[in-house]
Amino acid sequence: MFRKTLLTAALVAATALPAAAGGSLSLTVNAANADEARAIRAGLALYQIARGVESGAFVHQDGSFNGAAIAQVAGGRSLGVIHQEGNGHAATLDQRGRSQAHGIFQFGNGARANVLQTGHGQAGLTFQFGFD
């Protein structure tokens, strides 16, 4: 199911590319079941291990004029990643509850993302490509 959802989203994104010129293209994938949530959580954990991260929240910025914030409120075991490459990106990740996992990955210039997770055990990924 996860692979089918990701493939469908990629096809939709590829057909929307010409209309997105000058703005940004965003693709968000949210886990639909526990297996998908575990896969996303494992991928984000591997990303953090590769970066030498020792906490549940991590921001990587490579470029100029980028802004990022992660808030993890209540509970524990949440995992948040914001990765920005390029210039002028802005991202916020607000995780409320326990065992949340989300990664925001921004490339190009001028992408904007605001993600809010509430409840328990949500997981997702957001990929953005800014064309400004």
Task: Provide a short characterization of the protein structure.
With 132 residues, this protein is an alpha/beta fold.
Walk me through what this model shows:
It is built from two helices and eight strands, in the order H-E-H-E-E-E-E-E-E-E. It is α/β, with parallel strands linked by helices and 132 residues long. The protein has a five-stranded mixed beta sheet with strand order 1-8-6-4-2. The protein is globular and about 35 Å long.
Distance between the termini: 34 Å
Mean of all residue-level pLDDT scores: 88
Element order: H for helix, E for strand: HEHEEEEEEE
Radius of gyration of CA atoms, rounded to a whole number: 15 Å
State the major sheet. Answer: 5 strands, mixed
Order of strands across the biggest sheet? 1-8-6-4-2
Shape, per Cα inertia axes? globular
Low-confidence sequence ranges: 5-20
Classification by helices and strands? alpha/beta
- Binned, the helix content reads 25-40%
Number of helices: 2
Task: Compute the number of strand runs.
Answer: 8
Strand content: 35-45%
Number of domains: 1
Q: Mind sketching the topology for me?
A:
Layout (H helix, E strand, L loop, with lengths): L1 H19 L3 E7 L3 H18 L5 E6 L4 E7 L5 E7 L4 E7 L4 E9 L2 E6 L5 E9 L1
Parallel strand pairs: 2-4, 3-5, 4-6, 5-7, 6-8
Antiparallel strand pairs: 1-8
